[in-house]
Structure formats: C-alpha cells, structure tokens
Amino acid sequence: MRRLFLLVTVLAGLLYVGRQYGREIGRLSGASTGTVSRTVKPVRDVAPGKSLEIFDGCGVEGDARSIGVRALDRLKNRYTQPSPEQIDSRITLAAVLAPGNDISRWKLNEGAEIVGYVSEVKRGGIEVANCRARDDADRDTHIELVLDPMHSDSSARMIVEVTPRWRYIMRERGTDWSTRGLRDQFLGRWVKVDGWMLFDAEHQRESENTAPGRLENWRATAWEIHPVTSIEVASRVR
User: Fold this and answer.
1) What is the pLDDT of residue 33?
2) Does domain 41-233 have CATH number 2.40.50.140?
3) How confident is the model at residue 49 (pLDDT cuts 50, 70, 90)?
4) Considering only CA atoms, which of 52, 103, 104, 56 is closest in space to residue 78?
5) With contact defined as beta carbons under 8 Å apart, do 169 and 57 qualify?
6) Residue 3 near residue 198, CB atoms below 8 Å
7) Are 95 and 115 in contact (CB under 8 A)?
8) Chain-centre distance of CA 140, in angstroms?
9) What is the structure's pLDDT at 22?
10) Is-contact 57 79, C-beta < 8 A?
11) pLDDT digits over 68-122, tens only?
12) Calpha distance 187→204 (Å, rounded)
C-alpha cells in the first residue's frame, strides 16, 4: 500500500509538472491553450532550404503522448542558436549549482555561456524526445560539468546535452560531435559551453536542489544547457 501511495504521488507530481510546462511554454511561444506554435522561424544554422523540424523521421516534439512532455521535448530539440541579446550573463556554473530550490531561478527562453570542467561524457538513454531511437547518432550526448575536478559528486554536477540535430549541424560544418568525438576532445578539460537553458522536469526528483537528501540523486540541478550550440576548450574558470 505504501509503495502504491508513493507511485500515485510521483505520477501526480509528473502530471502537474507536465501541465505547468505546457502553460509556461505556451506563454513563451505566444499560444493561449498551452500548446506550442508550429510556426517555423528562419533558421540561421542550417543550409538554405533545409529544415530540421523532422530529423531522421522524428519531429521536434518527439513521440510522447503528454502535451506537457511534447512541449518540453520541442525545447530540447531547438536547432537555432540564442542571439547575443538572449544570453543571460548572470548564468554561470557557480550560479547554476548554488543550493536551494531553483525551479524558477532561470527562464526557458534564456541562453547561457558557462565555463566548467568536463568530468564525464557519455551516451544518453533511449528517450521520447528522440522518438526512442537506439542508434548512437540519434541519441543525446550527456556532458557533466563541475567547478572542481576533485569534487564531482552529485551535489556539484550540471548536465549539458548535445542533441542529434546539433550533431548533424556540426557535421555539416566539418566538426565531429559524436559522443566518441566529444569525449576525445573535451573529457578532463575546461570548456566554454553555449546554448539554451532548460529545466528538465523529468529529472526534478533526481536533483539535489529540488529533492534534497535523496539517495537516488545523481545531479545538483534539473537545469541544463540543452541543446548545446557551441563548445570549445577554455583557458580559465568563470
């Protein structure tokens, strides 16, 4: 009975978060119903005439049934870069990792540029955002950033993610953003990462800032840079 109660509680929480995401994303996109506008803006980062609304048969909203999750996945699969005006200079790795409930700390339509040390690079899981793809090229790459190379436990870790669309964009530019390529280039190095801020509510119960003290926590925060739109070796910490 206790397990059933906990399961119902978690599912109710996820449903609430999904609805909240639908409302917030609808507001950011100018919609009034909680759905996301499907108007495609001009894309600076893709060859003329090439749209990435559908990539390898998967739409930007993925294949989840929930409206809230589909709206969240549409943000994960953005394929334009934040403009300079959208970059919030207050967002640093130290600010992101600062303790405390951080659900409202940043905004979904903000870009960020942060510097951190890469403690891990690995293939992401099979996710609805990528229509449950199994091939490595069609799955995200998870990059774990920390401020201190000697202190990389769950309370000190931020996740940034390279998506299949940005892997393709960079391949077209002659740059290898495969999981193996990213690991070879950046593991154990300081990097500067640019991209879109995203609160991944699916990991809210696995993050120290929003579920403090849980043994299952494996990250400091559910805030991510997702997708990463630029990554390069950095010479200093900021």
Assistant:
1) 29
2) yes
3) very low
4) 52
5) no
6) no
7) no
8) 9
9) 54
10) no
11) 999 999 999 999 999 999 999 999 999 999 999 999 999 999 999 999 999 999 9
12) 26
Predicted local confidence at residue 2, as pLDDT: 47
**DSSP classification of residue 36:** P
Q: Which two tokens stand for residue 84?
A: 């300079």
C-alpha 171/C-alpha 167 separation (Å) is 6
Burial bucket for residue 72 (CB in 10 Å: 0-12, 13-18, 19+): buried
Q: Give the pLDDT band of residue 10 (cuts 50, 70, 90).
A: very low
Residue spans per domain, the chain: 41-233
Residue type, 129: A
Q: Is the peptide bond before 212 cis (omega within 30 degrees of 0)?
A: no
* The residue to which tokens 């979904």 are assigned: 108
The answer to whether 79 and 52 are in contact (CB under 8 A) is: yes
Q: How far is CA 1 from the centre of its chain?
A: 35
Q: Say which amino acid occupies 174.
A: G
Which residues face 87 on adjacent strands? 111
- Taking residues 163-185, what's their average pLDDT? 97
Mean pLDDT, residues 63-72? 94
pLDDT at 36 over 80: no
Q: 77 or 152, which is more confident?
A: 77
Give the pairing type, strands 158-162 and 223-233: parallel
Alpha helices by DSSP H, listed for the chain, are: 2-29, 67-76, 93-97, 164-172, 179-186
Query: Residue 198 in contact with residue 108, Cβ under 8 Å?
Result: yes
Number of Cβ within a 10 Å radius of residue 40: 10
pTM: 0.80
Task: Tell me the two tokens of residue 206.
Answer: 């696995």
Burial 121-152 (b: 16+ CB within 10 A, else e): beebeebbbbbebeeeebbbbbbbbbbeeeeb
